[in-house]
């Protein structure tokens, strides 16, 4: 089965840098994953495996830590989850699709904390809940935004990673 690994916290420089995505593909192939493909430098991997999601997340995490030194959380999704997330995008006409971001987690997103967050006023930024992820509309420059992954992680006590809608659309296609 094809699975998509979304790496949390990849940086262009520093301790969480992945030197080359091609090298990441090589080391993941060496530990038994097949048909490994990477997409853009932010840490997106599509692979073929029958390993359970939690085990796959741990395997990728450990492989990266041991071979590269980066300590990255790994969120695992399958093609149908990504396709559903793209299809359920609540930001339609009138919204710039390049400013739509999807937030994924391996953790359960539910409860009073989530309800409180969904009713909070973020100005021109918007937060919505879908069946597969959280959706954020961020019309401003990244340095000026209120909503971000770190904020959501703290408020919801989860580990999460964010991708643009266009990236998730592409990963969904790659995972077919």
Automatic annotation (TrEMBL):
> Which InterPro entries does this entry report, sorted A to Z?
DUF1697
* Pfam families according to UniProt: DUF1697
PANTHER family given in the database record: BLL4334 PROTEIN, DUF1697 DOMAIN-CONTAINING PROTEIN
Its name, as the record gives it, is DUF1697 domain-containing protein
What is the scientific name of the source organism?
Streptococcus suis
């Amino acid at each position: 089965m094809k699975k998509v690994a979304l790496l949390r916290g990849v940086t262009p420089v520093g301790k969480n840098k992945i030197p080359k995505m091609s090298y990441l593909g090589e080391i993941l192939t060496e530990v038994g994953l097949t048909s490994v493909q990477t997409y853009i430098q932010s840490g997106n991997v599509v692979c073929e495996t029958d390993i359970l999601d939690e085990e796959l997340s741990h395997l990728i995490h450990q492989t990266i830590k041991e071979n590269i030194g980066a300590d990255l959380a790994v969120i695992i999704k399958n093609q149908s989850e990504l396709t559903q997330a793209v299809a359920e995008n609540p930001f339609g006409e009138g919204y710039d699709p390049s400013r739509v971001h999807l937030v994924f987690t391996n953790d359960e997103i539910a409860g009073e904390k989530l309800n409180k967050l969904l009713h909070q006023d973020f100005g021109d930024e918007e937060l919505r809940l879908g069946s597969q992820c959280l959706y954020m509309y961020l019309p401003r420059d990244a340095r000026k935004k209120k909503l971000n992954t770190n904020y959501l992680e703290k408020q919801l006590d989860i580990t999460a990673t964010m991708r643009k809608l266009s990236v998730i659309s592409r990963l969904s296609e790659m995972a077919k």
